[in-house]
């Protein structure tokens, strides 16, 4: 947490975060235009932000792209501000993304990362066991597996999504399709979950690629809420649903 306050205590680094908030996934060359300083100076600021986990670098081909990671800031809000706010007043971290069809060498356009105090097995089971999903999904959906495909439903039984396993590396990597029933003609998008172990923590990285149909621009906010729920569920053992009631009222 000290690294987060250190990273935010500089106007240049706040300017870089603002630039990524406006356009995520920028390269070093693009971010150089934000600050009136040398390339080396910009690199030093990016390194401080990376150490604080406020940005996530992702190398694609010859270029390294930088993504804003809102989850550490959400953790700060949950620690100090949340007890004094109504659930409906929680700030929405909407990531308004209009994704185009990607090729294998194109950069991912949605990415986030968090650290969870749990075992690798517990995190893997939470991601792959349909019975666990309802304990942390922000809309309190249920899930049911049939072969390599999982079907998701709202509490009232309305079917919302199909997710088909595309790549499974036990305990380490899971890639699934994302096929929303509200857009049956849309090309399926692709979700990648990557797990690494760092001491008593698991680092979870989530990428959502190929998303070409997001009519309410709410996918980014939904991910923030679901991953926050997953983290809380695994660390406390209690179900956690962040903001589902509020979002359902807007639908």
What's the number of helices? 9
The pLDDT mean sits at 83
Global structural class: alpha+beta
Cα radius of gyration in angstroms: 18 Å
Order of helices and strands: HHEHHEEHEHHEEEEEEHH
Number of strands: 10
Which residues form runs of ≥5 with pLDDT under 50? 86-105, 245-251
Please describe what this structure looks like:
The chain is of the alpha+beta class. The protein has 2 domains: 68 residues, Winged helix-like DNA-binding domain superfamily/Winged helix DNA-binding domain (Arc Repressor Mutant, subunit A, Orthogonal Bundle), CATH 1.10.10.10; 181 residues, Alpha-D-Glucose-1,6-Bisphosphate, Chain A, domain 4 (2-Layer Sandwich). The strands form 2 sheets. A 7-stranded antiparallel beta sheet has the order 4-10-9-8-7-6-5. A hairpin with a 2-residue loop joins strand 5 and strand 6. Helix 1 packs antiparallel against helix 4. The longest helix has 18 residues. The C terminus is likely disordered.
């Amino acid at each position: 947490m000290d690294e987060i306050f250190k990273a935010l205590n500089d106007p240049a680094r706040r300017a870089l975060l603002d630039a990524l908030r406006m356009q995520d996934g920028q390269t070093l060359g693009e971010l150089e235009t934000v600050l009136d300083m040398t390339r080396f100076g910009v690199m030093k600021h990016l390194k401080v932000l990376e150490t604080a986990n406020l940005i996530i670098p992702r190398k694609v081909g010859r270029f390294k792209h930088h993504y804003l990671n809102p989850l550490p800031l959400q953790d700060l809000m949950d620690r100090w501000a949340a007890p004094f706010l109504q659930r409906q007043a929680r700030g929405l971290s909407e990531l308004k993304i209009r994704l185009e069809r990607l090729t294998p060498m194109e950069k991912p356009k949605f990415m986030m990362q968090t650290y969870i105090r749990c075992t690798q097995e517990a995190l893997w089971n939470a991601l792959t066991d349909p019975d666990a999903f309802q304990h942390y999904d922000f809309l309190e959906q249920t899930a049911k597996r049939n072969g390599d495909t999982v079907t998701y439903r709202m509490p009232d039984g309305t079917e919302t999504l199909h997710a088909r396993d595309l790549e499974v590396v036990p305990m380490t990597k899971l890639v699934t399709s994302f096929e929303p029933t509200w857009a049956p003609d849309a090309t399926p998008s692709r979700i990648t979950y990557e797990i690494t172990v760092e001491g008593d923590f698991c680092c979870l990285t989530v990428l959502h690629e190929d998303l070409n149909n997001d009519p309410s621009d709410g996918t980014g906010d939904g991910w923030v809420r679901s991953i926050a729920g997953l983290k809380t569920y695994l660390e406390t053992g209690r179900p956690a649903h962040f903001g589902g009631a509020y979002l359902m009222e807007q639908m």
